[in-house]
Amino acid sequence: MPRVKKQQRQQILLDQVHEKPFLTDEELARALQVSVQTIRLDRLELGIPELRERIRRMAESAQDKLKSVERKEEVVGELIDLEPGHSGISLMRITEDMVYAKSQIAKGHYMFSQANSLASAVIDVPMAVTGVANVKYKVPVHMGEKLVAKAEIIHVRGNKYFVWVKTRNDREEVFRAKFIMVAWEAC
Amino acid sequence: MPRVKKQQRQQILLDQVHEKPFLTDEELARALQVSVQTIRLDRLELGIPELRERIRRMAESAQDKLKSVERKEEVVGELIDLEPGHSGISLMRITEDMVYAKSQIAKGHYMFSQANSLASAVIDVPMAVTGVANVKYKVPVHMGEKLVAKAEIIHVRGNKYFVWVKTRNDREEVFRAKFIMVAWEAC
DNA sequence: ATAAGTATTAGTACCTGCTACTACAACCAA
DNA sequence: TTGGTTGTAGTAGCAGGTACTAATACTTAT
Questions:
Q1: Contact assignment for A184 to B103 by CB distance below 8 Å
Q2: Does domain A6-48 fall into CATH 3.90.950.20?
Q3: Contact B129 A140 (CB under 8 A)
Q4: pLDDT at residue A156 above 80?
Q5: Phi and psi dihedrals of A62, rounded to 5?
Q6: CA-based nearest residue to B108, from A177, A27, A145
Q7: Which label site among B13, B88, B169, B171 has the fewest CB atoms less than 10 Å from its CB?
């Protein structure tokens, strides 16, 4: 890499640090063919923190994000009322990562996931799998909306449970689903 | 916190470091009411690296995990063939975090999500939302299985696209879905 | 009770990756 | 030529350690 003007160098520095945050000043100095002091001055001007600080911040923010992801994986939505074997209510807020970037409309499978995991929660058996789902999306759901899903078992035949789930935002019904859940014997 | 025996102290140390990895030796020493040297000896015995090393490892692993999560969020499954406006094939491997811990059977909404995002990929429009879904789970899917979903547009009426998705593992059909996707005008 | 062994504390030299500062040289532009 | 920008060099000091030596306190076995 040849030596370049200050402005250009600082731009490269920004890029480098953004791409590989684990580089020390010494390594950066070698990469940009300048002295360590120059790198330090550049960092000072650009407000780039030192290596350890960069790593610390990454670790912190990444930890937070991971935690929220883990929470999300478990049960989709928050169970706020449950009468096992009868009915249940779950609440879910549409966050940024659930919508299409362009349209800000929620991806369909989040509503499905909320309804499906609620359905498997209300039927009062140790294990169950989904057999059939009949789903209707009535109106598009946008970022920031709070969805309340209500599930009700309407019929049981043998090991099959017929569950209806209706999901509303604060104004209207946005989604409805009919599931047939199959209770599963431990092998 | 009162002083305790070595064994117990080391157990507490492990817990503390696990819970709050950002504690320095000095802070740990204060918390456990022993000298900094004792903490260092304990860390040595237990193979706990120093603060900076702990943070570095967190940052690294968290970054990797976040990347894989992000990849997962985008499109569920891997698009391996796509004829826009006509058909498409997607592949998904069932991993540990997709199954119920007890039964090792995949949660239904992963198959749904794969099918749904494939369906929205095959219809060749800038934006689309799911209108109706009709889903049948034929056999339970277990951890480690590779699922191949094939989608086909069978009918178009106005801005409504009728898409069938059939999903197989290496032996049989495990899932099938019929979607009505609605093309969405930019507002 | 006393010796042997374990657990703990104290202190020193050294390391990395810096910050903060001073001093000075090189360049380029008016 | 003069002056401002730009780049280098070097020093002192810091955090959070490692690695090591030495000394003290506490237990336990005999």
A1: yes
A2: no
A3: yes
A4: yes
A5: -65, -40
A6: A177
A7: B171
Gap from B5 CA to chain A (nearest CA, Å): 32
Where are the extended beta strands (E) located within B84-142? 87-93, 128-137
On the CB side of A178, how many CA atoms lie within 13 Å of its CA?
A: 6
Per-residue pLDDT band for A1 (boundaries 50, 70, 90) equals very low
Q: What is the dihedral of CA B131, B136, B139, B145, to 10 degrees?
A: -20
pTM for this structure?
0.57
Q: Is the CB of B37 under 7 A from strand C?
A: yes
Helix or strand (DSSP H, E) at A132 = strand A128-137
- Secondary structure letter of residue A50 according to DSSP: P
Helix or strand (DSSP H, E) at A156: strand A146-157
Length B178 CA → C6 C1' (Å): 72
Q: Contact, A184 vs A123, CB < 8 A?
A: no
Rg (CA), chain B: 25
Interchain pair B108, A184: CB under 8 A = no
> Which residues of A are less than 8 Å from B76 in CB distance?
109
- Strand C close to A22 by CB, under 7 A: no
**Alpha helix locations (H) across B24-107?**
25-32, 36-46, 51-74
**Residue with token string 């945050």:** A21
Return the CATH number of A61-183, one of 3.40.50.1110, 3.20.20.70, 3.40.50.1580, 3.10.129.10: 3.10.129.10
Report the distance from CA of residue B14 to the C1' of nucleotide D26 in Å, as an integer: 25
Is the CB of residue A43 inside 7 Å of nucleic acid strand C?
A: yes
**Average pLDDT for residues B166-178, to the nearest whole number?**
94
